[in-house]
Amino acid sequence: MGSSFSCCGDEKVDEGQNNGVVGENSWRIFTYKELYAATNGFNEDNKLGEGGFGSVYWGKTSDGLQIAVKKLKSMNSKAEMEFAVEVEVLGRVRHKNLLGLRGYCAGNEQRLIVYDYMPNLSLLSHIHGHLSREVQLDWKKRMKIAIGSAEGLLYLHQEVTPHIIHRDIKASNVLLDSNYEPLVADFGFAKLIPEGVSHMTTRVKGTLGYLAPEYAMWGKVSESCDVYSYGILLLELITGKKPIERLPNGVKRTITQWMEPIIAKERFKDLVDPKLKGNFDEIQLKQTIRVAALCVQNEPDKRPTMKEVVCILKGGEANHLGDLRIQSVKYGDDLMAMDQNCDQEDNYEISNSDQGNESSVYGVFGAMQMQKMQDTYKHYGEK
């Protein structure tokens, strides 16, 4: 991907530096018996969420570690492939802002993936779900989530070999630990990019509203597709609005369509989530909107890299930013029809199913009673 501007000088990422990477991989192979015991026999009371892939359960190992266990529903070829991809990718990566692999189980008829449990659930649960009423995410936490998520993507794009494109960046795939540190999750759609390859053409998967136009329309996937999705996520953090909302007249509107006239009039304060009650940093607000506007440019080559995004969000200056304006993406009627007729059992395809499905709005981790979820262990990513 080519970028038309630079940030914080021209130094390159040194792959030999730590850059937030955490130690050696510590995942292992679990037995089905171990996971059965940890989840109390995959008890319904332990269920955190459910989707087309199967179910996720909370569990506690014999040594006291709290885990989340994704139990695949059926082993068709698609599920087998996504299981293999996720285990492969998670086995390669280790970063404080990426949800780590604790292990997996691959028996004759069972496929299970084991993660660390995140006590504060997903970003989606705080922005749109049951936790949104409690307004636990103040402006400072939102900026922490924005920067941490960006750093996790930077690691995938530039600091791991081969580079990785996530392909499904969205609020339900950003989980929050006990300190509201974000961890990007769910690598079932991830693509490993061979050295020297700038983009690939592939079957479109993901959630409508977050999909870059070149990917949604032509299946062209590159690191800049993740950048676009991240830009939508950033707008969601600022505004508290969904990527696509249905108006009273039934017409669907993207978040960029809603923001475009407000930004044109420079009424930036009108963009902020009303739940914050005016408590935000105006300088940070304008800078964050600027970053988001760059990320959601229609043309991939005009979007920044994740390194540039991290730099700007941390207060760095970027060259050639141009005027602060945002571009509206209007998906074609055919894509909107696919969104409207989405089958929840096949939510791996282009869909906006997260927006209205109670079982999936909490991402990998569901709406289990919080008093049952005590954070009794030290997360591997804490320093």
Average pLDDT figure: 79
Total discrete domains: 2
CATH homology-level superfamily of the largest domain: Transferase(Phosphotransferase) domain 1
CATH class of the largest domain: Mainly Alpha
**Percentage of helical residues?**
25-40%
Structural class: alpha+beta
Helix segment tally: 10
Alpha-carbon Rg, integer: 20 Å
Main sheet specs? 6 strands, mixed
β-sheet strand percentage? 5-15%
Strand order of the largest sheet: 1-5-6-4-3-2
| CATH fold-level label of the largest domain | Transferase(Phosphotransferase), domain 1
GO molecular function: ATP binding; protein kinase activity; protein serine/threonine kinase activity
Keywords: ATP-binding, Kinase, Nucleotide-binding, Serine/threonine-protein kinase, Transferase
Binding site for ATP: 71
Domain Protein kinase: 42-321
Could you give a short description of this structure?
The chain is built from ten helices and 14 strands. The longest helix is centred in the middle third of the chain and has 21 residues.
